[in-house]
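R.M. (postdoc): so does anyone remember the format we settled on? I'll just put the structure tokens first.
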């Protein structure tokens, strides 16, 4: 306390006012000037302190503190100049000047040491260039990201990107379509959401093993789970993707539903093919092996009819007649069945043939029928095509034979013609003036053993048109009919143009 009293004491010293002879103008000039300097010096440290508090990221912010102490000390020395105009506290003024000197020297030393670091700071132009470079890099990054997202969105397969913890970070539109989720429903969710329940428990371990040794990996025969709970067969390709956040896992997911259906279809077709081959073999051997015992039964029934006709009663003759007729019909059925089993299985290579010659070959086998019925068979100009001539002759034989068999009361007229359509096919037609066919039976007549008439009206087994259909389809074509009852029929079959 005594020290402070001594420090503020004037002692025997004379205030500065006496030095100015108390000239009012001179005294107030010093008072106003020193006061304003004091106030300015007091304001500057507060401003610097406010800047430091608001911008803690500024480099060398401790230097602002040093400047603040120095400026406050300087301001106090000017305050003492005003005080000493009336009070001679020169010891206090000297002490403040000593403090100011210490702060000044310390600040100057620190500032000199700070000069190299300050000079190493980038200039405004350098900072401007650096900002422009960063902006350019950011633009390139955004463009690259936009290209990446564009590629991702245009991918034909579902794309799912997950982090090492199995959280989904990015999906494309195909993923939404395949699994039925919206994008915001998937991002951030564990990738196990897309898996059936039975695979979820073990998947984290598989993921850890993969992230420990990331590599391209293809997986087939997997199943995914849609939002609606249905499963979908998948093929998945995993690829590691380096990023700033660490390794990411890219899963390319392909829906193989159609491929599985195709595989099943191929398998089914193969089984059907084997089954058909076995059925054909069975039909061939059955019809072939049945002919011999049937021939024996037929021979003996005919012998009984010849030897004992009229020698027994009328019932016996009738019964023997039934037996002979049944044997004859069974023989025709077996022969036709054998023909059907062989239809379309010639195994011959296709050759350039004259369809007119094929028609003539078929008509040779119908010579007796044509002569007995008085039928008139004509044909237009017929082309040369590449096909199996023997099977084509059988088609003509069956279609012309049917036209004559199912004739009306008028003399049968049959015309064969051919035209070429725009689909690289030859359309053959066999037109007659016979009984005609009700349109409701257009499909039925090509089915095996399907007949529209009884045995008493027309003999037959209902195999002829089925044989035609089988042969035409075996040659790569198709067959159909157009007809009206009482106005005749036109059978068409189309064969591809080859060569």
């Amino acid at each position: 306390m005594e020290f402070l009293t001594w420090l503020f004491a004037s002692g025997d010293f004379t205030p500065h006012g006496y030095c100015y002879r108390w000239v009012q103008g001179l005294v107030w000039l010093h008072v106003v000037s020193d006061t304003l300097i004091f106030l300015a010096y007091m304001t500057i440290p507060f401003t610097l302190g406010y800047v430091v508090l608001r911008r803690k990221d500024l480099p060398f912010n401790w230097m602002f503190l040093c400047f603040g102490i120095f400026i406050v000390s300087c301001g106090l020395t000017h305050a003492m100049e005003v005080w000493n105009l009336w009070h001679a506290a020169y010891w206090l003024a000297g002490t403040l000047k000593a403090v100011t000197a210490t702060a000044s020297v310390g600040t100057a030393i620190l500032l000199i040491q700070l000069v190299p670091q300050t000079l190493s700071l980038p200039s405004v132009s350098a900072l401007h260039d650096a900002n422009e470079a960063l902006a350019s890099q950011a633009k390139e990054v955004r463009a690259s990201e936009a290209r990446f997202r564009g590629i991702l969105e245009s991918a034909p397969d579902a794309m799912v990107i997950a982090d090492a913890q199995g959280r989904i970070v990015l999906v494309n539109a195909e993923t939404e379509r395949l699994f039925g989720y919206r994008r915001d429903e998937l991002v951030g969710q564990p990738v196990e959401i897309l898996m059936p329940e039975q695979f979820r428990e073990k998947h984290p371990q598989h993921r850890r093993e993969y992230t420990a040794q990331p590599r391209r990996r293809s997986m087939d025969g997997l199943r995914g789970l849609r939002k609606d709970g249905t499963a979908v067969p998948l093929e998945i390709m995993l690829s590691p993707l380096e990023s700033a956040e660490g390794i990411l896992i890219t899963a390319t997911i392909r829906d193989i539903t159609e491929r599985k259906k195709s595989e099943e279809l191929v398998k089914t077709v193969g089984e059907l093919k084997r089954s058909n081959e076995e059925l054909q073999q069975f039909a061939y051997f059955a019809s072939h092996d049945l002919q011999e015992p049937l021939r024996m039964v037929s021979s003996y029934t005919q012998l009984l009819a010849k030897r004992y006709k009229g020698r027994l009663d009328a019932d016996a003759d009738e019964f023997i007649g039934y037996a002979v007729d049944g044997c004859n019909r069974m023989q025709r059925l077996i022969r036709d069945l054998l023909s059907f089993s062989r239809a379309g299985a010639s195994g011959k290579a296709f050759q350039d043939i004259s369809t007119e010659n094929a028609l003539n070959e078929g008509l040779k086998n119908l010579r007796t029928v044509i002569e007995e019925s008085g039928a008139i068979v004509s044909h237009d100009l017929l082309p040369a095509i590449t096909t199996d001539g023997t099977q084509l002759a059988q088609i003509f034989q069956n279609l012309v034979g049917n036209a004559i068999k199912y004739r009306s009361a008028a003399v049968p007229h049959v015309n064969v013609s051919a035209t070429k359509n725009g689909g690289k096919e030859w359309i053959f037609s066999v037109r007659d003036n016979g009984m005609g066919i009700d349109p409701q039976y257009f499909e039925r007549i090509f089915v095996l053993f399907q007949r529209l008439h009884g045995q008493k009206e027309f003999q037959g087994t209902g195999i002829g048109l089925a044989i035609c259909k089988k042969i035409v389809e075996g040659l790569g074509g198709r067959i159909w009919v157009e007809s009206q009852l009482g106005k005749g029929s036109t059978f068409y079959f189309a064969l591809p143009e080859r060569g």
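R.M.: ...and that's the designed sequence above, right after the tokens. Also worth knowing: The mean pLDDT is 80. Residues 262 and 268 are 10 Å apart (CA to CA).
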